[in-house]
TrEMBL record:
It is found in: Cytoplasm. Cell wall formation. Catalyzes the addition of glutamate to the nucleotide precursor UDP-N-acetylmuramoyl-L-alanine (UMA). Its main location: cytoplasm. InterPro entries: Mur-like_cat_sf, Mur_ligase_C, Mur_ligase_C_dom_sf, Mur_ligase_cen, MurD. This is UDP-N-acetylmuramoylalanine--D-glutamate ligase. Residues 311-424 form the Mur ligase C-terminal domain. Its EC number is 6.3.2.9. It comes from Fluviicola taffensis (strain DSM 16823 / NCIMB 13979 / RW262). It catalyses: UDP-N-acetyl-alpha-D-muramoyl-L-alanine + D-glutamate + ATP = UDP-N-acetyl-alpha-D-muramoyl-L-alanyl-D-glutamate + ADP + phosphate + H(+). Belongs to the MurCDEF family.
Amino acid sequence: MNIQNKIVVVLGAGESGVGAAILAKVKGANVFVSDFGSIKDSFQGELNEHQLDWEQRTHSMDRILEADLVIKSPGIPQKAPVMKAIREKGIKVISEIEFAGYFTTAKKVCITGSNGKTTTTMLIHHMLKKAGLKVGLAGNVGYSFAKQVALEDNEIYVLELSSFQLDDMEDFKAEIAILTNITPDHLDRYEYNMQLYVNSKFRILNNQTAGDYFIYNADDKTILAELEKRSISAQKLPFSLTQEFEQGAYTANKQLIINFNNQFTMSIHELALKGKHNTQNSLASGLAGRILDIRKDIVRESLSDFVNVEHRLEFVAKVCGIEFINDSKATNINSTWFALESMEQPTIWIVGGVDKGNDYSELVELVKEKVKAIICLGKDNQKIIDTFSGHVETIVEAGSAMEAVAYGYRLAKKDETVLLSPACASFDLFENYEDRGNQFKEAVRSL
């Protein structure tokens, strides 16, 4: 893609937007950055450092509609008025990931799925760093892909891709694509139509050829049903907790077995991450490592010494024998299902926020088994109250993390757990899930 002297407009000045603007400038474009909200001070500093032209709290439509190319942040919905105007003018719109992909020859390992994608992404990145490769971490985690392409020289990138990012992809290609699972999530963005969401996830296979790889969860019925309908060009490598494969990865007799590029085995007791879903993440990561010819001892070491990401089943503290766990990153029902399933003590569950079309009934049996009290942490908790009334004796509402933690401390006894696993987005009371998790941790530490 030649953008020399072309007008490139970047919409949204968060991590991805600022990175895209820097890359566009490096490649010789005339760049204008427009954000309808406020731009964080740190991002303003970066834009100024790279002598980029920018505006905030407005969209100057006359300037935006002069663009030869628009790079859109994934958070901006297609229905936004600015997007409507750009479409009517027929201007090409791409994502930061798509844009960066045009300017790198590095290999790309791309991970998507409703759950487990961040853990799998971080685990693979950890493995490749340990192997001594020059590796970038980007997408939904790490730093902007475009910025790294502009300013660094990496031989491989590990990218976590959300369905929103995949929706904006046309020419981008993953040399290794990983699909961890598909469960209903973000259905509000997909007209409450599960097939549209599934299609979005399968876009990770776009442009793959016979020389590329597709690693997928063979225990996921939705993925298997979709594979029946499609012809896949890439080499398929399944992973499973129950089935064995000549080419793929699985568990048998408490062993993790990877059948690719010579067989690799290790005891599942050696894995750093506990729980069935994390065994699946380890299987997918191990497969990616062996495709990339990472030495077996490095694969083994990486899977056994990895430290999980913040806000994902993160132990915060033990106060008077009560354990506090921060799983703020659980923004959908499936994530919370995994969290509750891994609880071994009676649990006080903090849940709620912005509902994305959740069906809480899927959790009822697990809640009856594991949960002794529910603390609702959101502005509108009626759906949660209606679902679990009669199944859980105590349901209370809290308007802040501090209040939720105080309730948890009061309701829990020694050798019980207070779990923040909201199953919802956080935007009603918090900036994002990190802010929610950090406020929770602060409140616990102030007990």
